[in-house]
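W.,

You were right to be curious about this one. When I first looked at the sequence I had no strong expectations either way, so I just let the prediction run and decided to look at it fresh. Below is the sequence, 202 residues in total, followed by the output.
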Amino acid sequence: MAADLGLVQAVRKIAFEICAVFALALLIVSAPRWGHSVHRYMEAVGIYLVAVCILGRTLCSMYITGHKSDRLIDIGPYSICRNPLYVFSLIGALGVGLMSGSIVISLLFGFVVWLVQRIVVSKEETFLLNKHGEAYRDYMNRVPRFWPDFSLWNSGDNIVVRTRGVLRTFADASLFLLAIPVMEVLEFLKETGSLPVLFELP
């Protein structure tokens, strides 16, 4: 079962890489319909969401890194949502989309990330049910899958932090920041006419 879960995670990464290629192609041939000032505002909101993603994923990793398969984590972010890492990734995807200046692209990015994660989560839940039994079933009944319920927050008494794993998660999440120079370069090339704009998106 653990091997199957590893395969699911590998497929998830490949799916995201394929989606990233198609997303880049869409960004290259399209431009936002809004004016410059609206575009800049959306870009600022997008950067803010990416920052939330990076900090949120790092916080979650402090609780889950090194413990996901051997014991049930139901404190901290995991006390209000069963998959907070994925929720923050979704926030990051929406943020990257907003950096393009297009609400359509932002929603498209978010939908693709949500769809892939939903498939992965269903497999992970099967694995965790087999691993933890009724304890995980009770956890599923108490805590929402994605949408956080802040009234359930439980910080716990203490946590064991695996520093190397947390730093790795922070570094991985920080890759979202690469969207900033990519968007700026694409915008410059379009403004100078080096890249043809085939259509505009709201």
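Here's what jumped out at me. The helical segments are 2-29, 36-64, 84-99, 103-132, 134-142, 163-173, 179-191. And, maybe more interesting for your project: Strands lie at 30-32, 199-201.

Coffee later to discuss?

I.
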